[in-house]
Every structure is written in structure tokens, then in C-alpha cells.
Amino acid sequence: MQDRAGPWAGLVARLGLAAVWLYAGGAKVGDLAGSARAVNAYQLLPFDVAQVIGAMLPFVEVAVGLLLLAGLATRVSAVVSALLLMVFVAGIASAWARGLQIDCGCFGSGGQLAAGESPTYGWEIARDVGFVLLAGYLIVRPDSRFSVDRYLTR
């Protein structure tokens, strides 16, 4: 018997992850300098490299979000999602371990926190691990309702 929940669960995972990427990338596309500042705040990359990554990242996020929204190249988009999210988790954990006081910049702004503000690293890591689980589901079960992939493979 075929698992009927799979395509619906896949749809929920795919659209949820698409919404995350579209919101995150969309919030940063209008402020590429801010995105670059956020990447640089992690103090993991040379300044020039952080600037380039910060300027490119919002467009990658929007592209992955659009692919997931359409359900096109779902497994590949889920792999890219999982890899990006794991890099984000490692970056946040590194900032936490080194005592940096920064906003992750995950959904815009980012950079150094103002005096008296506290980072929310534990919450950010838990949230991103949850998103990794959604991506993992789509890697294993990329088939979902209303996806372009579904129509291309029939």
C-alpha cells in the first residue's frame, strides 16, 4: 500500500522550507551591505571574502526558495538547503563559543548587537536544526503534491 501522507508531508516540508528561504533572502536582497556586515561579524572569513558571500547569499537563498516553491529539483534544493543550514549552525555555534555578541543576520540586519542586547544563539541553532530536518525529509522523500518534479517524471 502506498504511503498517502508522503506527498502531503513533502508538500508541507517543501513549502515551509521555501517560505524560510524566500523570507530570509528577500529580507536581505534590499540591503546587500547589511548582509555583508552580518557575514563579516562572524569573524571567520577575510573581509573581502565576507563581502562577496554576503552579497551573493540573499540571491542563493531566493533561488533555492523559488525552486522549492515550484517543486523543481527538489532533492538538489534540499541538499543545498541542508548544507547551507549546517554552515549557518556551525557559524552560530562558533560565534557563541568565541563569546561574540552578534545578531545572526539570518533574516536581515545582523552584525554587532547593541549594548545590553543578548544573542539568542541556542534558539537560532535549534531553529536551524529543525530546518535541516525538513531538508533531510525532502532529501529522502522529494516527491510532493503540486510539484513540477512530479509532472516531469510521469
TrEMBL record:
<dbReference type="InterPro" id="IPR009908">
    <property type="entry name" value="Methylamine_util_MauE"/>
</dbReference>
<feature type="transmembrane region" description="Helical">
    <location>
        <begin position="76"/>
        <end position="97"/>
    </location>
</feature>
<keyword id="KW-1133">Transmembrane helix</keyword>
<protein>
    <submittedName>
        <fullName>Membrane protein YphA (DoxX/SURF4 family)</fullName>
    </submittedName>
</protein>
<feature type="transmembrane region" description="Helical">
    <location>
        <begin position="50"/>
        <end position="69"/>
    </location>
</feature>
<keyword id="KW-0472">Membrane</keyword>
<dbReference type="GO" id="GO:0030416">
    <property type="term" value="P:methylamine metabolic process"/>
</dbReference>
<feature type="domain" description="Methylamine utilisation protein MauE">
    <location>
        <begin position="8"/>
        <end position="140"/>
    </location>
</feature>
<keyword id="KW-0812">Transmembrane</keyword>
<dbReference type="Pfam" id="PF07291">
    <property type="entry name" value="MauE"/>
</dbReference>
<dbReference type="GO" id="GO:0016020">
    <property type="term" value="C:membrane"/>
</dbReference>
